[in-house]
# Entry
Amino acid sequence: MTYLFDKTSFHQFSARIIFCGALKKGVDTSQRVSPTGAIPAEREFIVFERLSNRFDEIFKGLKKTGSIDESSLDIAMRDIRRALLEADVALPVAKQFIEEVRKEAIGKEIIRSITPAQMITKIVNDQLIKILGPADSEFNINKNEISSYLFVGLQGSGKTTTVGKIGNYLKNNFDKNILFVSLDTSRPAAFDQLKKLSEIVSVRILPKIENQIPVDIVTRAKQFAQLNEIDCILYDTAGRMNIEENLMSELSLLEKEIHPLETLLVLDSLTGQEAVNVARDFSNTISISGSILTRIDGDSRGGAALSMKYATPCPIKFMGIGEQINDLEKFHPERIANRILGMGDIVSLVEKATETVDQEDAERMAKKIQKGEFDLDDLLSQIRQMKKMGGISGMMKFIPGLGNLTNKISQNSNPDNSMAQQEAIILSMTKYERSRPKIINGSRKKRIAAGSGTSISEINKILKQHRKMSDMMKKLSKKGGGSIDPNMLASQLGGGIPSNFLKNKY
# Structure
């Protein structure tokens, strides 16, 4: 089976995503949306990729019968159990998961037009959400008093970097005055690392006093916060092994002294099965209110997320998806479950667009949509926005039914490979030509082709692509223009991608 991608129709679809993100309800268009420096989507969500691929194979193998018999169920459960263990999910978690799925699936009648594979997928999806949940994992913030946050975890789990990311999140999203406090008196460079992050985020850090013990640092931090109108104090603690009783006891003392609004366990996603023991031991010592998974971009298995929820009822609140200060994403169990099962995640795609789109460009585009205008400079801007969001292959991972297809696209047919070429073509045009594509005749095409190192046929393709995009903008203008309701834009998506985007040939 081969897959032929209609780049024009995908550009149309992605444009709707980008505009929906830019004009999403709740986004203040009077303020510029700061770029996130987001890492490519194909690297961002390598986590769970192995599990997703295995589930895809399992569901394809289920028999298309009117009911789920025990024989086919046994085969499916065996394969699912193996898939979970291969993903480094702890054995007790895998066993519990299988038991719950089996209990739900046994004797389940298949609804007309629904296959056993689809029914099992629904049951597995519900169980994944249950394990990864709860869904309500809001990050708590005090309105009228100082909010204190205590970050704990193993050595090397990424606590200090996470403190920087959370500080950036609170500052940019809630306009809070932040104070960073280093309680790590054992690691020589701990304070310097946190100080560097405070400079990047542009927040204050409690000055260091040599040989001061952590409890005294806490007292000084509280006094400093009162005097300097600080809204949030973020305490970075020394990394410690969960078997080090004296250091774990120190955490208990610090918790009593700080009275944190949130005590957050920072856990490296590469920990895998060991996440169960780590989460349990820390929870037995202090009151963990939530956890943050780091290095999501480096884990293709995803066992840590599933395993740690087995050990503690506290929710996973954030995921660290890269090394940059903005590489932080809120954890949504239902969205993660959908991604694991190849169902896509349109909501996260729209949110990604909201974060990556340049607000000035969005406002300019909204005005042009209102007038029904769309020139080649606009197409160039849209191509660049798509590249920021991970390109076509990166965006496909969020679209229902297309996540697993990215692995099947050959290098030669990958639509992302043409983006540099498209940019080169448009940049080889004059400003006047980009604003008035209709004037581009044969002689102009020859010059543009020579300047971009392409052919006249490629020039014709991009002009055709522009015409289709322009027609779409005219349709949008008739439905509201610059004051487009995001719900209307979402309805333009039609619940999926355009029908002519993907064609199957057997």
Observations:
- Confidence is low (pLDDT under 50) at residues 1-10, 21-45, 481-506.
- The longest strand covers residues 147-153.
